[in-house]
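Page 42, continued from yesterday. The earlier attempt failed because a stray header line got pasted into the input along with the sequence. Redoing it now with the clean sequence only.
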Amino acid sequence: MLAKRIIPCLDIKDGQTVKGINFLELQNVGDPVEMGKRYAEEGADELVYLDISATLEGRKTFAELVKRIAENINIPFTVGGGISTVEDAGRLLLAGADKVTVNSAAVRNPQLISDIATRYGSQFVVVAIDAKKIDGKWTVTTHGGKRPTERELFTWAQEAQDRGAGEILFTSMDHDGTKNGYPCDTFAELSQMLSIPVVASGGAGNIDHIAEVLTDGKADAALAASIFHYGEIRINDLKQALADQNISVRL
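This time it went through. Structure tokens are written below.
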């Protein structure tokens, strides 16, 4: 059985790790390279860095940061934010990223998934999906959950897989930031439907929530931010607790 993965997520603005609620009231929480090194030492399996800079200057800073991360961190890391062309993806992969994640741009232009997968391989492409329940249906959203689209979670995830995505990162916008746990039934349905890994995001408040989404939710990995950044849960403690529940993790 493949080991389940634990993945800290770091939001980057102008070269610094920031944390806020729905991208508001952002506060610097540390240097992204130093935080990444610490998470790697604590036993993180992978890292995700998301560029939330709105400016071109911020994007350039991010590409430079990716090089620093690659030089200093010995675990795989995924980068995303503002990737809208194959060239954007290529620049970050050449800078040293192991994978890129696409979200809003892929919703607008699904061909982007196919193009990146064709050029670099499916293993490099993570499709992030933000969705929320609207009228009983899981509706795909963009702009941090603020803009509903015509797409539905399961059909979009299937299309992303068919177009060459190597992994799906699904965030329930209804649960994100609540620390009340994940919608495990939805994750289980998604994981059983797809043949590629599903990463769970949005809702982790304690160790039991993560254990639940990795077992009942059948997710392949759990991603979280605040609980790690603020030291509420240490990764090595989390992994030991999961192992104690007979969940396969790398210790």
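Notes: The mean pLDDT is 94.
Reminder to self: strip header lines before submitting.
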